[in-house]
């Protein structure tokens, strides 16, 4: 049969005063640190997210500048009439409209 060591009577442990305070106010030991971690994590994640978006915006600005410099050199004027004629020239003339038989039961 196992024997359990008992505490000697009258001898106080090192953490006994703290244990009594925790029993009285458990929020100070559990609740307050939990809320502090949640709030601190929120601020930390917001900074991390902001850094991510700043990096992405900087990369897009750089690409936009490079594209703008490259597009200005060989730019042609846009004319709606020219675009219309260009699209008309692309149509296929090798088709003809054929009427198919109606399915049975449809009037």
UniProtKB/TrEMBL annotation:
Q: Where are the transmembrane segments?
A: 27-49
Q: Which UniProt keywords apply?
A: Membrane, Mitochondrion, Mitochondrion inner membrane, Transmembrane, Transmembrane helix
Which GO BP terms sit in this record?
A: mitochondrial respiratory chain complex IV assembly
Q: Which Pfam families match?
A: COX16
Q: What is the role of the protein in this entry?
A: Required for the assembly of the mitochondrial respiratory chain complex IV (CIV), also known as cytochrome c oxidase. May participate in merging the COX1 and COX2 assembly lines.
- Which cellular compartments is it found in? Mitochondrion inner membrane
Q: What is this protein called?
A: Cytochrome c oxidase assembly protein COX16, mitochondrial
Family as reported in the entry's similarity comment: Belongs to the COX16 family.
Q: Which domain of life is it from?
A: Eukaryota
Entry's Gene Ontology cellular component terms: mitochondrial inner membrane
Report the membrane topology from the UniProt record. Single-pass membrane protein
Q: What is its main location?
A: mitochondrion
What species was this sequence derived from?
Phascolomyces articulosus
């Amino acid at each position: 049969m196992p024997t359990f060591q008992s505490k000697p009577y009258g001898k106080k442990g090192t953490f006994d005063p703290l244990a009594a305070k925790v029993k009285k106010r458990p929020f100070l030991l559990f609740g307050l640190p939990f809320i502090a971690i949640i709030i601190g994590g929120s601020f930390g994640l917001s900074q991390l997210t902001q850094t991510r978006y700043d990096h992405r915006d900087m990369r897009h600005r750089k690409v936009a500048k490079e594209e703008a410099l490259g597009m200005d050199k060989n730019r042609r004027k846009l004319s709606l009439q020219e675009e219309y004629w260009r699209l008309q020239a692309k149509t296929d003339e090798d088709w003809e409209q054929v009427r198919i038989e109606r399915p049975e039961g449809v009037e």
